Amino acid sequence: MKLPVYFISHGGGPWPYIPAMQASNAALAASLVDIPAQLGRKPKAILMVSAHWETHGVFGITAHPRPPMIYDYYGFPENTYQVQYPAPGSPELAGRVQQLLSSAGLPVVADTQRGYDHGAFVPAFVMYPQADVPMIQLSIDAGYDPALHLSLGRALSPLRDEDVLIIGSGLSYHNLRQIYGGGAAASAQFDAWLQHALLASPTQQRAALLQNWETAASARLAHPREDHLIPLMVAVGAAEHDKASCIYHESQAFAGITASSFRFDAAA
């Protein structure tokens, strides 16, 4: 049975490992914990497209059998630089992804050294704390071309029939410089557009709307750099004709912003 595809807002830094941040992220945590229940079975593997891995001109795919940790955050408690998420990698799945992307004419290279960044291990830890589901990461291209990443998602789509869970991990709002000064209004305005584009618009119009995302209200205030939005393009491409549902929506998320996560599924 074909698995759904997700775009998740992964929250701020290593929040699940900081008791003081857990309460303010309770709704986000509940939405992530619910994903395994929604699936009804444990997937063979997770393919995580994280906003925190960018490459130039070629997509990277992790092929380390035991990926190390990448603590790509700053200013957090010392314990957050010691956490481990020992989910195994999957060189076999990495090879399958290489095959799919190459067949679609998309350049791809296996990275046998890279580990898990926090855009991957933080949500994976909340979803599968036992670290018993293999996971690989796929990079985004630093040119941030929406059409390219929609095509990337289309190339990955067959994995849904192979029991691989595709997750785009970013944030529906990501402007850290303005998060405490106008972030609440900008995030709410952009989120309203996002809800309309994904939920209220016909699926055949969704890709075109996302390619023109900069015309949305407060688009550049919400995403001065669209690194955290691009994983959504991949998710939509992988589930191009499927309905969307909002699985997490909070108007007073961390720092008072509006944040959302989405599921794409034929049965949605």
UniProtKB/TrEMBL annotation:
Gene3D superfamilies: LigB-like. It comes from the Bacteria. Residues 41-264 form the Extradiol ring-cleavage dioxygenase class III enzyme subunit B domain. Belongs to the DODA-type extradiol aromatic ring-opening dioxygenase family. SUPFAM superfamilies: LigB-like (SSF53213). The lineage of its organism: Bacteria, Pseudomonadati, Pseudomonadota, Betaproteobacteria, Burkholderiales. It holds the Pfam family LigB. GO terms for molecular function: ferrous iron binding; oxidoreductase activity, acting on single donors with incorporation of molecular oxygen, incorporation of two atoms of oxygen; zinc ion binding. Its cofactor is Zn(2+). Keywords: Dioxygenase, Metal-binding, Oxidoreductase, Zinc. This is Dioxygenase. CDD domains: 45_DOPA_Dioxygenase.
